[in-house]
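Hi R.,

Here's the chain you asked about this morning:
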Amino acid sequence: MTKQVALVGGSGKLGTIIHQVIGELDGFDVARVLNSSSDLRELDGADLVVDASTPQVSVDVVRAAIERGINVLVGTSGWSAERIALMRPLVESAGTGAVFIPNFSLGSVLGSALAAAVAPFFASAEIIEAHRDTKVDSPSGTAVRTAELIAAARGEQGPVSAPHADQRARGQQVASVPVHSLRRPGVIARQDVILSGPGESLIITHDTVESAQAYAPGIRLAVPYAAEARGVVVGLENMIDIGIQARS
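And the predicted structure, written out as tokens:
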């Protein structure tokens, strides 16, 4: 039986891509498209809610889905580990699934995984991320997730070295990792993770040059996965085998 999807934020850049991809998936149909000001009672009767709204609206969308016993796939940026932790008891109590995807790009997920894998070998790690000037939040969800993965991978080694972190120009610290956000026209998405040790640096770069082609494969993986998920799941790495332990 075809699963009915309620897509929130379907007219935005990411939402438009998600709508197109779901339309090509067997067994799924976008039954209704909501915008950021829609009445969330329109979620009633859906089999899956896909959220591509704004950081300000996303919390209400996720709560509304959980309260209705509907699984939710969240592609909206701005969900840190702390914010997701607040949703975990609600999801577990409802017996539903909430899947948070900071970035649908397979290359981005691989880049973050590589950064986490090598982080224990370097004392210093910083992230520079760039997005188009219309992106309303910073740092990006991808940068936040990457920083959290780096911190988790370091374990007993503790926080990365980040001298002069009290200075505003040193960026925002996320899980001890300084993150620097650029917002400028002509950019889709780019992230550089710079890891440094005595006498050397390793730079892991992911550059999105065409969002529709970059995000579509990840969306195809995430939608069926989210429809059957239970509990809270964070990151596309849970749907592909890249040789690292996913941490939600």
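The two ends are 31 Å apart (CA to CA).

Let me know if you need anything else.
M.
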